[in-house]
Amino acid sequence: MFKFLPLLLLGFIACTWAMPINEDNEDRKPAPVEIIRSVINKESDGGYQVDNASADGIERKEEGNITYDAEGNPALEVHGSYSYVNEFGETVVVNYTAGVNGFVPTGNVINKEISDVAAAAKDLPKYETEAAAQYGKN
């Protein structure tokens, strides 16, 4: 068994030396993409707006707002969208909301069942609220 180990090692070294080396890796690097639009607005209350677009068809728009629940606790509510051109030349658009009810995506590549379940989750009882009521913590 061990008498074949040097032969295997020499075979491995010969194969690695025989492999072509491409020192010009420029063909592997993606070309830079021009940024067409990049707008970021920050509000004094913590809200924000973002609007980005690049020359390859990727766009992102998002807005975040601070909201307050019945007890006066602040929460960030976000809604936005992003889009890109897929390998078939089709524009893919995803709209979303995110906040106290979780992340809810909709769009032409998001299964409707996923969007429906995520949207219905807002009607589920919140564990923290139930636990606080059950154990007298608040």
Write up this protein.
The protein is elongated, with a radius of gyration of 26 Å. The chain has 3 helices and 6 strands. A hairpin with a 5-residue loop joins β1 and β2 (48-54). The termini are far apart. The protein has helices at residues 5-18, 112-120, 127-135; strands spanning 35-42, 48-54, 59-68, 74-85, 91-99, 102-107. The longest helix has 14 residues, at 5-18. The chain is an alpha+beta fold.
Topology summary:
Layout: H1 5-18, E1 35-42, E2 48-54, E3 59-68, E4 74-85, E5 91-99, E6 102-107, H2 112-120, H3 127-135
Antiparallel strand pairs: 1-2, 2-3, 3-4, 4-5, 5-6
- What count of helical segments does DSSP give? 3
What integer is the average pLDDT? 79
Please write the string of helix (H) and strand (E) elements: HEEEEEEHH
Kindly state the percentage of residues in helix.
10-25%
Strand content: 35-45%
Largest sheet: spatial strand order: 1-2-3-4-5-6
For the termini, the CA-CA separation is 70 Å
User: Quick one: how many beta strands?
Assistant: 6
- Uncertain segments are none
Shape: elongated
Please identify the structural class as seen in this structure.
alpha+beta
Rg computed from alpha carbons, rounded to a whole number of angstroms = 26 Å
| Largest pleated sheet | 6 strands, antiparallel
